[in-house]
Amino acid sequence: MKKHIHLSVLLIVFLIVSCKQETKDVKEVVVEEKASETSTQPNKKKPLSPHTSTMAMIGDAHIHIDYSSPGVRDRIIFGGLVGYDQVWQAGAHMATWIETNKDLIINGETIPKGKYGFFTIPSKGDWTVMINKNWEQHGKDEYDEKNDVIRFKVTPTISEEITEHLKYEVTKKNETEGTISLAWEKVKIEFPFVVKN
């Protein structure tokens, strides 16, 4: 009889201990699952060069510029990050593009309605602006001067204030005229256009 009691007590103790161990194992698994859930959540950091756009209506003309906007982040931009006298896609990542639903006159030449790549050649003096048929390309990888619809010079203005993120603006002057500008770091370029009737 005593043997049976001993065995029963031992069996009960064994069951209690193993149940506690199982509960502990289950808790550990749950904790591990929660930890892996939090580690797989996407990192919600802001992009360094956010994709953005600007647009305006000038009379019946809808002008849209699409670009990625890098920051200065305490760097030397022109003559540093962006080399002088070299083609630049005038933004980050994909080439900046401009789209118009009306023909425009820029620097005395007609730009037919459509979508175009926007490139520049920054310089210590005048910059060169190029509007190119190949609008869909990474950076300037496929830039070819033969595809330029127009190429002209523009004199930059230098400011003491820093424009932290690259910024384009389409500004309306009246129902048929406007300006397009690019500003980044201490440099700004701007040129006028006319909507062709």
TrEMBL record:
This is DUF2911 domain-containing protein. It comes from Dokdonia pacifica. Residues 32-52 are annotated as: Disordered. It holds the Pfam family DUF2911. It comes from the Bacteria.
